[in-house]
Amino acid sequence: MTKKKILKKVIFGTWPISGDYSKVNNNKSINLLRLAYKSGINEFDTAPNYGYGNSEFLIGKAFEQFKVKPKINTKIGNNHKKIKSFSLSFLKKSFQNSLKILKIKKINILYLHNPLNISNSKEIFKYLAILKKEKKIKDFGLSISKDFKYKEKFINKFKIIQLDHNILYLKNSCNKQFNKKIIHARSPFASGTIFLLNKKKFFSDSDFRLKWLSEERKKIIILQLKHIKKTFNKDVYDLSLNFLFNDKFVNKIIIGVKSIAQLNNFLKKTKVIQKNIINVSLYKKFFFSQNIFKDKGF
User: Fold this and answer.
1) Global pTM?
2) What is the DSSP letter of 87?
3) Which of 2, 79, 201, 233 could anchor a disulfide with 94, C-beta 3.0 to 4.6 Å?
4) Contact 85, 77 (CB under 8 A)
5) What percent of the chain is helix, strand and coil (3-state, nearest 5)?
6) What does the pLDDT look like over 14-49, one tens digit per residue?
């Protein structure tokens, strides 16, 4: 896999620059977005509720003067005030606001954002079909909540699925509902928890991840990471990348980046991705055979 093909498989995740993780510098984030695009990353993922709209604002600001703009994916179901609803009027207003803030006329992929127990799916699918026909979106997909079960009839309405998938969480890859789907894998580094082994990383009080990363869970994750590193004798970051980019279950990988240093580090790692440092099928067998992974990571 060449560097060009690797970058074609990457979607730049913009939640880390939204401000939900911790404080961000908007000017630095705008420069980061532009550098990513100029480096060969042509697709960006966002959502209205990321930073109360700040993520979409930064994308709009970064590329407003570009004649050729990157592909932008966003979501409906959570609006810019972090209010969740799937009423048709709510979705329409949220979509129009996203177009305005992003300063574009067309969305690449529009995801339904973690819909739970919606009762108006027929009118939603009709609306999505109209948006596609009017060329306001290229296509639509489903961004799913972890461990939430969707009915097969509902899943079959989508060909593009955004879900969690990484070396600590492989449950989705065993779900037959996702066979023959275009998979956009998010949380490639388990929302940053794969770095717990290498750094004494503690999330700040303003970081949303602090809510679910209890001390007990952190101990489990560190134990899992130690086991992986000992078994494969490789850096966990390198293993994570190599695994995902060689996993046939995955079509695209959403990589959240917060700084230019992180972006440059990833770009350097394209050489690691090209090496065969981990056998995906053997790793999956190893993963599911270890009792330590029953918690499924994070």
Assistant:
1) 0.93
2) -
3) 79
4) yes
5) 45, 15, 35
6) 999 999 888 899 999 999 999 999 999 999 999 999
